[in-house]
Amino acid sequence: MKITAFSAVLASALAMVPAAFAESTCDQFSPCYREGYCNVNAAFCLYGLCVPSKSYNSTSCWPAEGCASQTVNFDKSNDIISIYKYSGDASQNAFLSIFDPDNTAINNGNLELSMKYNAAQKAGFGATADASHTIKYGKVTARVKTASIAKGVVSSFIIRDDNTGDEIDFEWVGLSPNQVQTNYYANNVIDYTKMVPYDLGVDTSAAYHDYEINWTADSIVWSVDGKPIRTLKKADTYNAATNTYSFPSSEARIAFSIWDGGSGAQGTADWAGHPTPWNADTVYKMYVDSAEESSAVASSSELNSKSAAESSAADASTGAATATGAPATDAATATGAPGH
Ligand SMILES: *[C@@H]1O[C@H](CO)[C@@H](O)[C@H](O)[C@H]1NC(C)=O
Ligand SMILES: *[C@@H]1O[C@H](CO)[C@@H](O)[C@H](O)[C@H]1NC(C)=O
Q1: Is the CB of 33 within 6 Å of ligand 1?
Q2: How far apart are alpha carbons 25 and 16 in whole angstroms?
Q3: CA 60 to ligand 1: nearest atom
Q4: In a mutational test of the pocket of ligand 2, which residue from 216, 232, 293 has the highest number of ligand atoms less than 8 Å from its CB?
Q5: Looking at residues 214-230, what average pLDDT do you find?
Q6: Which of the two residues, 22 and 244, has the higher pLDDT score?
Q7: How large is the average pLDDT for residues 91-115?
Q8: Ligand 2 in contact with 219 (CB < 6 A)?
Q9: What's the structural domain count of the chain?
């Protein structure tokens, strides 16, 4: 499940600006609406995060970037950038680190997502990397070495659209280091009962494995090291009472995340294992060697390139949003709080 520590970050950002914008009142200077606040940078304007109906006008939210296919090997330092520094040019940065502080790094050709102890919150503060491109259907494969070296540590590789809550998951919990769990969500319904565990027979934190999601309009197939482990057919998600399918179908982003489930709410902690072992200098890491995406639908042929003026405006807001130091603390609380 996607972790959202965003409100806390936004609340802090909001404290730095003189006028607090209420819902649906974003103006031309802070046109993009997200989770109750308005601003002008990528953290607010990115497709899927930004809510068009509540933004300044119907074109204020940035359009979907789209993606035909790409392989990211994490061999370039700009393969990931903080979303607060992101210009909007998806061709420059394949992934966006969405939390502050930014606990992502590229080392030795791998993306590293770290989780460190936040003493004030008595919980770990992790990291999330969202793709700067969207996909709609298609196949994604990631080579991942998990952080399942201790109870409570959760690693994830998902495809998600924040607006609809459509989501397709691989998740690993420290409680069960040999296991990967698959799940999906649709229409913002949080239903944990669809989770299916798979035992790799080896420790997922010991070596890289290929985790693949083949997502079509009719089915989702999850595979590990080329072997299909689960198939979900859209037809089987039909609910006659509501005449709807609970099948993810929104244009979405792939995301990698590490977070502290063991220090969270009871249900989450029971699922992830607890307590998460922490010393002041403990660092847990999840590694991604490569991420390969091929989208069935390239929603826009042009990458979304923002103008220089918009880019510098984004940078200016970044300073405000990150100046307080408070988001880390607040976000850590939020990070531990949600269910899985
Ligand atoms: C819509 O808002 C954007 C800023 O978000 C602005 O650049 C654009 O000119 C506006 N369009 C109209 C038709 O007002
Ligand atoms: C993905 O799944 C679809 C439907 O099952 C199948 O036709 C297609 O060949 C699969 N693609 C890959 C690359 O495995």
Answers
A1: no
A2: 18
A3: 5
A4: 216
A5: 98
A6: 244
A7: 97
A8: yes
A9: 2
